[in-house]
Design brief:
By secondary structure, this protein is an alpha+beta fold. It is built from six helices and 18 strands.
Length: 296
């Protein structure tokens, strides 16, 4: 079994637990994913199965979308509701709703964000959450992130909900923290649901409890090639396929390409009559195509 699943992850389980469940149900030892979600978070996860796991290093989605809620007046050590409260402050009666909305909207665009201590980022080879769990706090360098858009803002007492589209690597927990800082108040995230990853949307995802056996997985699995929809699809003849199987360089005509492309162009290569992706090839400066990743 080779391909990927779009899964609506439930709350209360880690991303690893979800992948392990798919490994058990599918019977496929090689499984992975394209990006974690916190245990309490729900929403879209892309789970790779079989030879699709070879694509993991090539998948760098430039945007993700979330629905989130934050609480003003309370901060925790994890920057979300699951952590230990480290600060509380009364919200002044003078704070107006439009001021809150303006503070939220002010983060649209590029800004430098300090990642939370409870995160998978590494410093000197150690995960931040491992350091945090051992009681250590270390200085973290800020990372440049981009908030593409923020909308659907609702203010209800000390709770603020909104939808956000952002660059990969953005921590929504830290965004909630920073909104609080801008308002002069402690803040933490109380809810998170991922609604899209790149072009993939939560509306196309299957719920985990619906994947009861391998037959249901087989009905919902997507082909590996659909991970790379922006790359041109080319088909090779049986004769040329022999060279491809050995990872040989290929001339454009051997791949059935009759267009002139710039160096670095990537194409999806299929064997004639086969619906499974065989390889990704990239155009070298020599005018030949070389293997970027094999899937056979």
């Amino acid at each position: 079994m080779n391909g990927f699943l779009l899964i609506d992850k439930p709350g209360g389980m880690t991303s690893f637990d979800l992948v392990r469940k798919i490994r058990y149900l599918s019977g496929e030892k090689k499984t992975g994913h394209t990006g974690t979600l916190d245990p309490d978070a729900t929403g879209l996860m892309i789970v790779l199965i079989g030879r699709a796991t070879r694509a993991e290093s090539l998948l760098n989605y430039d945007s993700k979308s979330y629905d989130t809620e934050m609480i003003l007046g309370m901060a925790t050590d994890t920057e979300d509701i699951s952590g230990t409260i480290i600060d509380k402050k009364e919200i002044p009666d003078s704070l107006r709703e439009d001021e809150i909305i303006n503070a939220v909207m002010s983060f649209t665009g590029v800004y430098d964000q300090i990642p939370p201590m409870y995160s998978a980022k590494k410093i000197n080879g150690k995960r931040l959450y491992d350091l945090a769990r051992s009681g250590k706090t270390v200085e973290r360098k800020s990372c440049r992130v981009k908030i593409n858009s923020i909308d659907k803002i609702i203010v209800s007492g000390n709770r603020i909900s909104f939808s956000v589209s952002c660059s990969a690597g953005t921590y929504i927990r830290s965004l909630c923290r920073d909104i609080g800082v801008r308002l002069g108040l402690p803040a933490c995230m109380s809810y998170l649901r991922r609604t899209s990853v790149g072009r993939f949307d939560i509306k196309d995802a299957v719920k985990l409890d619906e994947l009861k056996d391998v037959s249901v997985i087989d009905e919902n699995i997507h082909p590996v090639g659909d991970l790379f929809p922006d790359y041109e699809k080319v088909t090779v003849s049986p004769e040329a396929y022999k060279y491809l199987m050995n990872g040989n360089r290929m001339y454009p005509e051997e791949l059935g390409i009759n267009k002139i492309y710039p160096a670095g162009t990537v194409v999806r290569v299929y064997r004639k009559g086969d619906s499974d992706l065989s390889a990704l090839y990239t155009l070298d400066t020599t005018g030949e195509y070389k293997v970027l990743k094999m899937f056979i």
